[in-house]
Design goal:
It is a single chain. The strands form three sheets. The chain has an eight-stranded mixed β-sheet. It has 574 residues and is α/β, with parallel strands linked by helices. The two termini are 36 Å apart. The longest helix has 22 residues, at 163-184. The chain folds into three domains: 3-199, 3-Layer(aba) Sandwich (Pyruvate-ferredoxin Oxidoreductase, domain 3), CATH 3.40.920.10; 202-383, Thiamin diphosphate (ThDP)-binding fold, Pyr/PP domains (Rossmann fold), CATH 3.40.50.970; 462-568, Rossmann fold, CATH 3.40.50.920. The chain has 20 helices and 20 strands. It has helices at residues 3-7, 25-38, 84-89, 118-125, 131-142, 147-158, 163-184, 205-215, 230-238, 253-265, 276-280, 283-292, 319-324, 340-357, 367-371, 437-456, 480-490, 510-514, 530-539, 557-568, and strands spanning 12-21, 42-48, 55-65, 78-81, 99-102, 114-115, 201-204, 220-223, 246-249, 270-275, 296-302, 333-335, 360-366, 373-376, 462-464, 471-476, 495-500, 502-504, 519-524, 545-548. Helix 4 (118-125) crosses helix 5.
């Protein structure tokens, strides 16, 4: 069973670790991704977990590769189940070539299992808490990771816990190293290393969004914890002193959005981070931003609904919520990062757009993107500017001056001699409440005129593949890397991908790409093809061919390849 894995060079190996909540699956993911990276391997990790403190089945998939790898696959090359339920949970993904490593005293199964006595070894070291480090040792040996590098990393990581904890963790890794030799007779996995990867950055989506906010000049975040958005609040809170950020865990989402509006009014650059259910409570505040023309950046991390839905799973079903939330009519922008790099750059851009046009800007992510890791070479900070559009007010200042562009000069209290008046009711140019119906019409038209400028700055969709395509895949958000890898597997000149990183307003070039295709296929993680319907509304192209998933899991590369071939046929028209 292991011949193929150990006796031939591998470009990419998929490792899956699975156990119940509380068994340290995320700890394993944390250590392994970092140890593989500092060893020179490209690494990618994504997790699935249940919304419970104990029990259930949580898993992580780690792909180790000689090249960039950034999408989940269905296959499992090495499987380390920590209980019998783990085997049942992922049985559909086990193949005849899967190498299963586990403790036979704990796991009862008809599968061939390479016996790793985790419980016995850990007990001799000091308790079950060390089982994870034994597994780290086994995998480190199989992937030719230098033992000294692992030990140095553990010494640094556990230093604050004292020498005894450091020594026991190192002993556990060493025991794992020895067990790998015993189980596989010195066989190792041959994946080429790249020394440059050691200096790469390893980020997940939540960290990238938070760093993008910092790069955008964010100095205030208010949020109420709600998975999967909480990681952004946690990261900015942890680094609040370093970057002079006020981080406020509000009592609820209504307070959070109103705090953010107050911060922008006072001259700050504020972020709210939430998920679907929490954002539902923010919609009145969203309309307040629309009426007062107060900038606002909203990070909305999607998860399956309605109501509590699947709180720890992923979906792309809140596009319509972001697009239509709030009462009344006012402009907005919806950015949809496709990669961890995008999560950084587009969040940074969101602050400049919000400030420039005095509008709400959404950064629409999902649980899959937020919780996934991979290595990137760098973030190009020297190409970014914090653009501020606040003016110094004079005595005759009018906050809502009617302008040709629809954008009024925005002042803040205390900067200049003018009085900065904002009102949630309809108002005149000075900001005072009015029920003059003619002025009402002028103010509505003023606010909506901004869309002409906003549309000119919309991000165009990206085309991937040959220009003479017959079949055009259409995607947005976190499906990007999975579709790209599926395209490589298809290896067809007649198939291309049109990808959107901004879904509203839609760039005017979209129609020209769509009209060239004989067959258009929309790929989305929702049940109603929400973006396809939006495309139809703006371009007239009906989303007749759809690949949709709404089981709470992201697409896998194999799933997409099979479903695309089913629609376009198996003949390669090269």
């Amino acid at each position: 069973m292991s011949d193929k894995l150990f006796n031939t060079p591998q470009k990419d190996v998929s490792i899956v670790l699975c156990g119940e909540a509380g068994q340290g699956i995320q700890t394993l993911e944390f250590f392994l991704t970092r140890i593989f990276k500092i060893s020179g391997y490209h690494v990618y990790a994504t997790k699935e977990y249940m919304s419970r403190i104990r029990g259930g089945s949580n898993s992580t998939q780690i792909r180790v590769s000689s090249d960039y790898v950034r999408a989940p696959v269905r296959r499992i090359d090495i499987f380390i189940p920590l209980n019998t339920e783990a085997l049942k949970h992922l049985e559909r993904n086990i193949t005849p070539n899967t190498v299963i490593i586990g403790d036979k005293e704990i796991i009862k199964s008809e599968y061939k299992i390479y016996n790793l006595p985790l419980t016995r070894i850990a007990a001799a070291i000091g308790g079950r808490i060390y089982e994870n480090m034994i597994a780290v040792g086994v995998l480190s040996k199989l992937f030719k990771v230098n033992l000294q590098n692992v030990e140095d990393y553990l010494k640094n990581y556990f230093a604050v816990k004292g020498s005894d904890v450091v020594e026991k963790n190192i002993r556990a890794v060493e025991e794992g190293y020895n067990e790998a030799d015993r189980l596989f007779k010195g066989a190792e996995i041959n994946i080429m290393k790249n020394p440059e990867v050691r200096n790469h950055i390893l980020l997940n989506g939540a960290e990238a969004v938070a760093l993008g906010a910092i790069a955008g000049g964010c100095n205030f975040i208010s949020a109420y914890p709600m998975s999967p958005s909480t990681g952004v609040l946690v990261f900015l809170s942890q680094h609040s002193k370093t970057f002079n950020i006020i981080a406020e865990q509000a009592e609820d989402e209504i307070s959070a959005i109103n705090m953010a509006l107050g911060a922008w009014y006072a001259g700050g650059r504020a972020l709210v981070s939430t998920s679907g259910g929490g954002f539902s409570l923010m919609t009145e505040g969203l309309s307040l931003a629309g009426m007062t023309e107060t900038p606002l950046v909203i990070h909305l991390a999607q998860r399956p609904g309605p109501a509590t839905g699947l709180p720890t799973r992923t979906e792309q079903a809140d596009l319509n919520l972001a697009l239509h939330a709030g009462h009344g009519e006012f402009p907005r922008v919806i950015l949809t990062p496709s990669t961890i790099e995008d999560a950084f750059y587009l969040t940074q851009k969101a602050f400049n757009l919000a400030d420039k046009f005095q509008i709400p800007v959404f950064v629409l992510t999902d649980q899959y993107l937020i919780d996934s890791y991979y290595n990137i070479p760098e973030l190009k900070l020297n190409q970014l500017d914090i653009e501020k559009y606040v003016v110094k007010t004079g005595r005759d200042y009018k906050r809502y001056l009617i302008t040709e562009s629809g954008v009024s000069p925005r002042g803040i209290p205390g900067y200049g001699e003018g009085l900065v008046v904002v009102d949630s009711d309809e108002h005149d140019e000075n900001g005072h409440i009015t029920e003059n119906l003619e002025l009402r019409v002028k103010m509505v038209e003023k606010r909506l005129r901004k869309m002409e400028l906003i549309e000119k700055e919309a991000l165009p969709p990206e085309i991937h593949g040959e220009e003479d395509y017959k079949h055009l895949l259409v995607g947005w958000g976190s499906t990007y890397h999975c579709i790209i890898e599926a395209l490589k597997h298809l290896n067809r000149r007649d198939v291309a991908l049109l990808f959107f990183k901004q879904v509203y307003p839609i760039h005017k070039s979209a129609s020209s790409y769509l009209e060239k295709a004989e067959k258009i296929i929309f790929i989305e993680n929702n049940a109603t093809c929400q973006f396809g319907m939006l495309i139809q509304q703006f371009t007239g192209f009906k989303p007749e061919n759809q690949i949709l998933s709404y089981n709470g899991l992201p697409f896998t590369v194999e799933d997409l390849v099979e479903k695309i071939e089913r629609i376009i046929g198996g003949v390669n028209e090269s």
